[in-house]
Amino acid sequence: MVNLNDKTILVTGGAGFIGSNFLNYVLKHYKNLAVVNIDKMGVGSREFIPSINSKFYTHNTTDVRFINLVPQEPIKYDYIFHFAAESHVDRSINSPMDFIHNNVIGITGLLEYMRIHQPQARLINVSTDEVYGHLDLDDPPFTENSPIAPRSPYAASKASADLIANSYHTTYGLDIITTRCCNNYGPWQHSEKFIPTVIRSLKEGKNIPVYGNGKNIREWIYVDDHNKSILEIAARGISGGVYNIGSGLEFSNLDMVEMLVKEVTGEQRYWLERVEFVEDRKGHDFRYAIDSIHYIRGFGLTDFDCGISKTVAHYIK
Question: Is 130 annotated as catalytic?
Fold first, then answer.
């Protein structure tokens, strides 16, 4: 894992779900780390309280003024961690232009800033397994060599961002790595996402909305394990490389509902009676699963039951 002591890092989207958990982790484990966090404070962002060794700017990387924001101070970054993105598939279906603007133009603004002001930095472009498309039940998992075939405006915007990042590595020689992770769960995820929606429905005594027949399958990883993997890849990854971050834990949406009902209520019988099947999502991907031929994890994953318990406890509180 990369040693960030005595390093200076820029984090984009550090008030979002994964980014805020990343900041919590690194600020806890590296006492001599200097952090600048930039977040536009959009959907899914939460209040960021700067610590003694961190600074926070409310800003959007799509804005050309981003180029002139941080250079007001003589900062040279060792690492840039790019988490900032619009990430909800449903909203991308309803408002695709917002996702193209924020995810594609956003990373381009950041790359221009890096090219002009921070060519010495290593950029970790945090992407998603959704760029590969989807799988049938018996298909083998995607690897880093699988072709990208996005099926939603969100996935297409992230695939485009990955390609643009790679072009800056090839054309300008910038030190850029892309990571593609499976579905994350954990504290501070926005209420619109699946697991918080299930927990909230149970707390409020409402039916749990489930798309289609509930058989769609996702691979899940605890958010801290994702972030620790990012730190390992930042240390050991090859410039220009793509690294999948998976867990091997696949559950259907109905499987996840059943586990959450048991965790929240302590009752497993009749759990299906709490489900309300709703009209399926347009172009709903059936299954995501990834494997990595490039990244070998150097730590043990969080036990799923433990991770779910911590996640539920956070939202109940």
Answer: yes
